[in-house]
Amino acid sequence: MSTQKTKSIPNKPNTTKKSSPKKTPRKSPAKKQAVTTRRADQYDDPNHNYLHYWNGRDYEHASEEVAITRLIKDKKFKHAVDVGGGYGRLCLLLEQYADKVTLAEPSQQQLDIAKEFLKDHPEIDRKLLQAGDLKFKGGSIDLMTVIRVMHHLPDPTPEFKEFHRVLSDKGYLILEVANYAHGRNRVKYILKGKSLPKEPVDIRSAENKRKDEIPFVNHNPHTIIKQLAHAGLKVERTLSVSNLRSPGLKKIVPQKLMLRVEKSLQPTLANIYFGPSVFFLVKKAK
Predict the structure, then answer these.
(1) Is 202 helix (H, G, I), strand (E, B) or coil?
(2) Helix axes of 58-72 and 255-268: crossing angle, nearest 10 degrees
(3) What distance, in Å, lies between the first and last C-alpha atoms of the chain?
(4) Which residues does 14 contact at the CB level (< 8 Å), separation at least 6?
(5) What is the DSSP string of 55-79?
(6) pLDDT tens figures, 168-226
(7) What is the pLDDT of residues 134-163, one digit of tens each?
(8) Among 95, 91, 103, 86, which residue's Cα sits nearest to residue 40?
(9) Dihedral through CA 78, CA 84, CA 88, CA 92, nearest 10?
């Protein structure tokens, strides 16, 4: 019997591609909003007592209370927060309009002074907080006051974003602006044939600049309005405040008379930003 040779057929390469297991796309972690930490060491200096700073400034303090009262009117609030309120100077006024008041202050020394200043008002909370990182739940605050804080914020953009975050949809922000466009400066710039600067102006002394003291600036109100709008906030009302601030006037004019005049001037001079302080009533833009 003859044996037939069988031709071996070479193995064909397997061209079928193996399906690789599907990779589940990884979600990139949510970006945390950068927190801007401002220096408050000047107010932690034992030689700088903000309570003592207000000695002889009764007219200025009363003028600010007049402005806040005018802007709040007869409204009632659940939670008012005084941001950068030092030792709680304005908290007692806010307590007349809010069920709960919190002093949010970045200086521990000021909070220690506040403990004594507010000793008869233990219901007022005192918290060590930065204006740009208030830690409150979003939309939980229906009244915020930010008075004599803008002096230290050359660029308030991070703070304005934080104010928008914590402010309720129907809440109010009362923002005081250290005004570089006040009446006396306007006259100076007109006489020089120059325009007022739009950027914040550093008003620290040469010595304080050398010592690298914390920022101390005055702002152009028009610029602040634009910055607020960029953060989703809208100015609803403006007041010109401390219009009669003058050491000479305070010596010769009775305070009651000065405050009577001040009260009438606040709305009258608001449109020209006459006073050294401008108060804005601010809400979230719709």
Answers:
(1) strand
(2) 40
(3) 102
(4) none
(5) TT-HHHHHHHHHHHHHHHTT--EEE
(6) 999 999 999 999 999 999 999 999 999 999 999 999 988 888 777 889 999 999 999 99
(7) 999 999 999 999 999 999 999 999 999 999
(8) 86
(9) -30
Provide the 3-class DSSP secondary structure of residue 34.
Answer: coil
Instruction: Give me 29's structure tokens.
Output: 């972690």
Nearest to 78 by CA among 124, 143, 174, 129: 143
Helices (H), 167-201: 183-192
284, 197, 176, 174: which is closest to 240 by C-alpha? 176
CA-CA distance, 242 to 236, in Å (whole number)? 20
The DSSP code for 154 is S
Q: What is the pLDDT of residues 234-260, one digit of tens each?
A: 999 999 999 999 999 999 999 999 999
> What topology is assigned to 41-281 in CATH?
Rossmann fold (3.40.50)
Distances (CA, A) of 31 to 3, 25, 34, 35, 114: 78, 17, 9, 12, 36
- Take residue 201 and report the two structure tokens written for it: 């102006």
